[in-house]
Recover the amino acids of this structure.
């Protein structure tokens, strides 16, 4: 079943088309990962699905309804997006940031409620940020900071969460930590997660549904084990590689050919087959 | 958003104290000046008016000056708060972005070419000037690659401010008579302003003050960045238009009454944030009161710095504000 759909969607920057006539369905309750080379339009597609960018033509349907025709506050209760590299104002505490997640539930008449408070506490707990609640966001490490932002999107209480490159600029440990957190949110609370990732191996490990974007459209989509192969990587990334099975998870693992040093047990053909 | 003062109770107490300080400063502004007056005669001027020179000065010159000083100080500080939030730029203010210069130029043009002298017309012309500058800076700042960035917007503001200032000077050189009429006003001054100057502007200023206070939640959310704010369901375009209108009312109204006074709009919000943190629920009222205090203190200082002459208060705020501005520009905040 699909929760988010694009219908003959065309996106462009000025005259330059980025996505053309795309019909895409995001499965409900699963993790979908968008991959593709730099500038292929995967971030643009993600932004448009969160109404941060208006389609040239076509429509985005959230739970079957066109998001452009709905009140933006109502959409904000069903779908959240964490943009790439968000920056908190100087001196903002984690608690204050997470509280902002309740913005769509408030108005001049409806002030802070017990339900808001509960949602904030739950978001802080789910991201293990409770102990950092009073710390300034700008004093945290990269991984903690990203967790604080994810806590804010969780406080928004949406069924669907979109994330644009949530692991960029993080070291390996923190990348895994963030992806594990998202994986748990999905398996425990059945939230639909759509994200853009650059690391193909992590994408294959965490995605139920992988979408490869190329040439203004979708080159392939489906379960990573079914669609990941050497030809796809070569088509989408113009990179020769060898696909093996991840010895730990059994998911596809992509090893690029290249220059590099060949060790004793390496293959002489590794240097550009 | 933590500042030096953290608890809400302390903030309320501090705010009450600040209001009290503003009242004291206004009283000082009524009592002290070139013409010697005492507290007693200041009170008597209202309770037991006898038509003496002292009483006339207190009622017709000093009191209007104190009230106008407070109103203009509050407005300039609020305009600074809004502009810094909307542009997410710590060194934004209506003087740096050319709004004050634009309003000033339009008024000088109206005086020298169209011989406009009605206060009501002055007000609208000042609004128009501020709006034209704001739009020009916004369009210049957002054109080209990368959209609206703080650096581009600041550069555009500096260019527009310089352009309007030069045009104003050029026009005054060509028109000596207008020069005499507007020179002191142009330097930014609240001396010799009658309350009649304030009346046509006051309704707009009051609306803008109330509007600013009501916007605190939207301001806090917008500061997370436009994408995040939109993701949270904020109608950011509407927010920017509303905030822009408030800024134009505040800056244009201030300039119509007092001429372009600089540095209040940039320094005061930083000082308020340093004290009470980033939450606009507090930043707005604190900045408003501090703005009033700073302008009145500067105005009192302006009476004494080169006795027996007075310097325009705009010169005083520049003297006080420049070191702060350099500090803020270097550090990005007051700290």
């Amino acid at each position: 079943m699909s929760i988010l759909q694009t219908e003959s969607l065309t996106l462009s920057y000025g005259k330059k088309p980025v996505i053309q006539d795309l019909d895409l369905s995001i499965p409900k309750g699963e993790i979908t990962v968008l991959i593709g080379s730099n500038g292929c339009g995967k971030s643009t597609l993600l932004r448009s699905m969160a109404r941060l960018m208006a389609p040239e033509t076509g429509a985005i349907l959230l739970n079957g309804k066109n998001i452009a025709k709905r009140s933006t506050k109502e959409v904000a209760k069903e779908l959240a997006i964490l943009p790439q590299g968000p920056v908190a104002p100087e001196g903002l505490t984690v608690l204050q940031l997470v509280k902002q997640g309740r913005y769509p539930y408030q108005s001049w008449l409806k002030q802070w409620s017990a339900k808001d408070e509960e949602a904030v506490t739950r978001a802080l707990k789910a991201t293990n940020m409770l102990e950092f609640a009073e710390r300034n966001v700008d004093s945290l490490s990269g991984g903690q900071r990203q967790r604080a932002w994810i806590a804010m999107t969780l406080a928004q209480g949406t069924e669907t969460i979109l994330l644009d490159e949530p692991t960029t600029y993080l070291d390996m440990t923190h990348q895994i930590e963030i992806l594990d957190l998202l994986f748990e949110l999905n398996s425990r609370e059945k939230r639909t997660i759509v994200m853009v990732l650059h690391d193909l191996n992590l994408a294959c490990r965490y995605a139920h549904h992988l979408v490869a974007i190329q040439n203004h459209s979708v080159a392939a989509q489906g379960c990573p084990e079914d669609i990941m192969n050497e030809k796809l990587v070569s088509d989408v990334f113009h990179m020769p590689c060898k696909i093996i099975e991840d010895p730990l998870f059994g998911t596809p693992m992509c090893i690029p050919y290249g220059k590099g040093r060949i060790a004793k047990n390496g293959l002489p053909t590794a240097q550009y087959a | 958003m933590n500042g030096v003062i953290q608890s809400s109770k302390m903030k309320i107490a501090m705010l009450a104290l600040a209001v009290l300080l503003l009242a004291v400063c206004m009283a000082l502004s009524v009592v002290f000046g070139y013409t010697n007056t005492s507290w007693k005669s200041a009170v008597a001027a209202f309770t037991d008016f006898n038509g003496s020179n002292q009483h006339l000065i207190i009622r017709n010159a000093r009191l209007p000056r104190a009230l106008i000083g407070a109103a203009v100080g509050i407005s300039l500080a609020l305009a600074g708060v809004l502009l810094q939030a909307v542009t997410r730029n710590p060194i934004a203010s209506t003087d740096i972005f050319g709004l004050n210069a634009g309003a000033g130029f339009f008024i000088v043009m109206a005086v020298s070419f169209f011989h406009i002298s009605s206060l009501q017309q002055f007000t609208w012309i000042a609004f128009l000037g501020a709006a034209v500058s704001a739009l020009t800076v916004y369009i210049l700042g957002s054109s080209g690659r990368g959209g609206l960035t703080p650096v581009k917007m600041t550069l555009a503001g500096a260019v527009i401010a310089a352009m309007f200032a030069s045009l104003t000077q050029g026009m005054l050189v060509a028109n000596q008579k207008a020069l005499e009429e507007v020179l002191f006003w142009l330097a930014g001054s609240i001396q010799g302003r009658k309350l009649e100057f304030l009346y046509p502007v006051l309704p707009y200023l009051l609306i803008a003050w109330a509007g600013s206070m009501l916007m605190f939640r939207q301001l806090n959310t917008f500061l997370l960045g436009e994408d995040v704010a939109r993701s949270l369901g904020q109608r950011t375009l509407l927010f920017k238009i509303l905030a822009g209108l408030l800024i134009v009312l505040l800056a244009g109204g201030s300039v119509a009454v007092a001429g372009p006074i600089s540095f209040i709009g940039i320094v005061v919000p930083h000082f308020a944030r340093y004290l009470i943190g980033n939450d606009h629920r507090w930043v707005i009222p604190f900045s408003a009161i501090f703005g009033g205090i700073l302008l009145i203190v500067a105005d009192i200082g302006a009476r004494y710095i080169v006795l027996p002459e007075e310097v325009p208060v705009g010169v005083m705020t520049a003297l006080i504000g420049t070191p702060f501005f350099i500090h803020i520009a270097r550090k990005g905040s007051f700290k």
